[in-house]
Amino acid sequence: MESINFIKGYGKVIPSEEDPNSSQKRTSNHRRRRIIAISSVIFLTIAVASLSAALIHESTTESEESETQPQLSSNSALKTVCSVTLHPDSCFSAISPLNTPPISNSPLHFFNLSLQATIHEVSNLSSLPRNLIKKDSPALKDCADLFSEAASQLEKSAALTRVNPGEKVFTEMKISDIQTWVSAAMTDLQTCIDGLEETGSTAVDQLKTRVLKSQEYMSNTLAILNHIQSLYDKFGLTMP
């Protein structure tokens, strides 16, 4: 019986008789694994937080750049458009204030703004002669009529670029008409100056400065129109 009990009990470990050192080792290993697991979680959390912060910073930077880029590209496009004119500085200074905020970088957009600036400048001319020379002066009346006629011709030019959806903006006939009307407006202003010079009016020098500015604007507008196809090609756009 004793031998049988010995066999049955072989290999079993009674809890109360377990080796204390073995229990301590298991406890130590358990703590070590727990510390490693916690450290891994902390490291992963820090890594994810750092990656998120980097992504947020990159997204914010890209957003800020996208907000400033349109203005930069618009100015660059405007300089390219004005480079085809004889007076690029006056072209840029006339159009730039009207291009805020930037709406489009198309040559048509800049052409319309150039024409708008020209109309505004010519319209302001009509009030000048009355402050400079006698009201009963034939030269005054001629200049007032010529300024009014020039403004009307420029308005007709602007109307041609306002089209319905699907309608072509720049046909050969429209381009020809605009060229004719803007050129005629330039001639009207020159006729005014020539008339004042013939009468020896002292208003010539004061008027001439403003008239020359308007003529520069007209010249710029015509130059943009004359190069409209090449500008569209340069920008990689299809002319409307």
TrEMBL record:
Segments passing through the bilayer: 35-56
Pfam families xref list: PMEI
This enzyme's EC code(s): 3.1.1.11
EC supergroup of this enzyme: hydrolase
Gene Ontology MF annotations: enzyme inhibitor activity; pectinesterase activity
The UniProt record lists the keyword Membrane: yes
Similarity remark: In the N-terminal section; belongs to the PMEI family. In the C-terminal section; belongs to the pectinesterase family.
Protein name: pectinesterase
